[in-house]
Write a structure and sequence with these properties.
heterodimer, A: Thrombin, subunit H, 6-stranded antiparallel β-barrel, 4 helices, B: mainly alpha, globular
Chain lengths: 275, 173
């Protein structure tokens, strides 16, 4: 018995170290369990506040660029407005108003923190449950898609960016319907994502645009992802492995839109029914 | 008392510098292989006469704070703990070779540069190896982990030593 106590006395520093490590590992494991990472997340109150403060200063550096982007977008929207169309036929125009119903709502948000050099990159935004944000809402900028929300707190939310090794998203080439899966290879670096699963008998060219398929209900159909930069045959299969240059520059993200799908629950419930 | 206040201030300032200056440095492509760290400087210069258990607890708090801001889910805390666990053994080893004079903390001013660099490199390589091992979470990528450890250790050691010359005051003797 005495020897046992002596033994514990010798290794007590080591034991203390192990106990603390176990506490930390519990946190790491809790992180992989999707929704439960409440404590150690930058959507937590303190760090959210801190990053908002930081962003208030650092956002000045990008103002000129952001203004250009917003001006371009304004011009585009103006062009689509009703007043730009002249009536060419003398017949009265019949507008069937109730065949369209809104499915996606867009709402603006500001990115307050953004990483690009990790394996699992995330984006923190200044909107949270107070603005009706929920997990699994799409994040896009005016140029293309960025990611989707994962964790939401009272006033902040974090999104998984496309530069995340856990990402899996159905995509299609623009104007076609062959579905592929979007993923990110860490070794490709920032702003390059990969698409696998499109059979080689589909003719694809370098420079083709890749857009979202819309099947997951996170993004509308046809949101831009990027253009094909390189195509090669995937080793050991009959599919393409496409390297896609994202249309968004992930180093500079400031103003984004969050997409709410009004029929998401309905879509999920019907897709979950087994045939 | 003076030491406690100095260390609390150091804790806050090092975290601010890490988040607002060092983390904002864009290394481009090399950013995948080099991670710059300066906040560990706090653990390196923690007073040597305090209990080792206190060092472990402080390391845990420091690491968890970093994890909270960097969204890294506990890997920094774990690596900080590993560093804090290694430090007493290293100190004992260094002391047996040539005893450390009567100083409260180890900075670039109290030790000669060569000795201090060795101390920093040894602790940091342990820190980064543990950090990247947890980040990759696979033994099959050991070569990449070792490369990242090597590069990060070199650059972070430079950063920490230069940082100490800039930030820390020379003790009056």
């Amino acid at each position: 018995m005495k020897n046992l106590f002596l033994f514990f006395n010798i290794i007590k520093f080591f034991l203390f170290f192990i106990v603390l490590q176990l506490i930390v590992f519990n946190v790491v494991v809790a992180k992989t369990d999707y929704q439960q990472s409440g404590i150690l997340n930058s959507s937590a109150k303190v760090s959210g506040w801190f990053y908002t403060l930081k962003n208030q200063f650092s956002s000045y550096w990008n103002l000129r660029n952001e203004n250009n982007i917003l001006a371009t977008q304004n011009a585009q929207l103006k062009q689509e407005s009703f007043h730009n169309y002249t009536i060419v036929s003398s017949n009265s125009i019949k507008v069937i108003d109730d065949i369209y119903k809104k499915q996606y709502l867009f709402q603006p948000a500001v990115v307050i923190n953004n990483t690009t050099n990790k394996k699992k990159n995330t984006i923190t935004m200044d909107v949270g449950r107070n603005k009706g944000i929920r997990p699994e809402m799409g994040v896009v900028s005016s140029k293309g898609i960025i990611g989707f929300t994962r964790n939401v707190s009272g006033h902040f939310s974090t999104a998984m960016s496309l530069l995340n090794t856990e990402l899996n998203l159905p995509v299609i080439p623009k104007g076609d319907s062959c579905q592929g899966t979007l993923f990110w290879d860490f070794n490709d670096g920032v702003n390059v994502v990969s698409v696998k699963g499109i059979p080689v008998y589909y003719k694809l060219e370098v420079g083709d645009t890749i857009v979202t398929q819309g099947g997951a209900g996170i993004f509308p159909k046809g949101e831009t992802v990027g253009v094909i930069e390189k195509k090669q045959k995937q080793i050991g299969s009959n599919n393409w492995l496409l390297k896609v240059k994202t249309s968004v520059d992930f180093n500079v993200i400031n103003h984004v839109f969050l997409i709410e799908n009004l029929y998401k629950e309905e879509l999920d419930s019907i897709q979950n029914i087994l045939p | 008392m003076r030491l406690i206040i100095v260390n609390i201030l150091r804790f806050l300032i090092l975290i601010l510098i890490q988040l607002l200056v060092v983390d904002q440095v864009s290394l481009g492509f090399m950013g995948n292989y080099i991670s710059l760290v300066i906040y560990v400087s706090f653990l390196l210069t923690f007073p040597i006469n305090t209990s080792n258990y206190l060092l472990l607890i402080v390391a845990l708090i420091l690491g968890l704070t970093m994890d909270m801001f960097k969204d890294s889910g506990g890997i920094h805390a774990s690596a900080c703990l590993f560093l804090a666990y290694l430090r007493p053994f290293l100190l004992r080893r260094l002391q047996s070779q040539n005893p450390i004079e009567d100083v409260e903390e180890l900075t670039v001013y109290t030790e000669d540069l060569q000795k201090y660099t060795t101390y920093t490199v040894l602790l940091l390589s342990g820190f980064f190896f543990w950090l990247f091992l947890l980040e990759e979470f696979s033994f099959s990528r050991i070569p990449v982990i070792l490369l990242k450890t090597l590069l990060s250790t070199i650059f972070s050691t430079l950063l920490i030593i230069i940082g100490q010359y800039l930030l820390f005051r020379k003790p009056k003797i």
